Amino acid sequence: MLKSFFHSGFIVRDVDQAVEFYTNVLGLKVAMRMERQGEFIDQVLGFSGAHIKGAFVDLGDGHQLELIQYLSPASGPGGISRNDLGAAHVAFYVEDIDRFYAEKSQQGLRPINPPAEHRDEQGKLIRKVLYAQDPDGNWLEFVELL
Questions:
Q1: pLDDT band at 135, cuts 50/70/90?
Q2: Which long-range contacts (CB under 8 A, 24 or more apart) does 142-146 make?
Q3: Domains, the chain, with CATH or none
Q4: Phi-psi region for residue 59, left (φ > 0), alpha (ψ -120 to 50) or beta?
Q5: pLDDT above 90 covers what percent of the chain?
Q6: Rounded to 5 degrees, what are φ and ψ at 14?
Q7: 33, 35, 67: which is closest to 50 by C-alpha?
Q8: Among residues 21, 5, 24, which one has the least CA distance to residue 133?
Q9: At residue 120, what are phi and psi to the nearest 5 degrees?
Q10: Residues 6+ apart with CB under 8 A from 26
Q11: Band of the pLDDT at 81, cuts 50, 70, 90?
Q12: What average pLDDT does the chain have?
């Protein structure tokens, strides 16, 4: 009975700093900010006394990324490896991934390696892919189709 995707979400240490990264470094726009506490959010999250604040950011294409800061209960230390069960990532299409890698690596993006080249069976370069983390350790993938 699914209809479509709504949004993806990341837990962040400080929502204002996360918004700064996703807007100023990656170029997304703030669609909405929010703060939630009370019975509704307790039931949704399964925590008594839950208090969160967050923001939705997007590129205007319909999919949004929700950035959530837990005020209560406080978030744990994080540090999920990309191969841990429960780890997740969001992927973006980019233009000129080599320039993107060079520029964004200087602005807080934490790549694990330079962009990798993927070739078809005839050896033709078909895409380049970069895997990285945001400042809070959330996993991001960037893809340039060639």
A1: very high
A2: 142/91, 142/92, 142/93, 142/94, 142/97, 142/100, 142/101, 142/115, 143/91, 143/92, 143/93, 143/94, 143/97, 144/93, 144/94, 144/95, 144/96, 144/97, 144/100, 144/115, 145/93
A3: 7-72 (3.10.180.10), 89-145 (3.10.180.10)
A4: alpha
A5: 85
A6: -140, 110
A7: 35
A8: 21
A9: -80, -175
A10: 92, 104, 109
A11: confident
A12: 94
Pair 139, 83: CB distance under 8 Å: no
Q: Which two tokens stand for residue 25?
A: 């470094």
- 15 near 69, Cβ under 8 Å? yes
Q: Which residue has the tokens 């744990």?
A: 76
pLDDT for residue 78 is more than 90: no
Identity at 84, one-letter amino acid code: D
- For the cut 90, the answer to whether the pLDDT of residue 85 exceeds it is no
Q: pTM score, two decimals?
A: 0.91
Distance in angstroms (rounded) separating the CA atoms of residues 65 and 78: 19
Tokens of 17: 């700093």
Write down the H helix ranges in the chain: 15-20, 39-45, 97-105
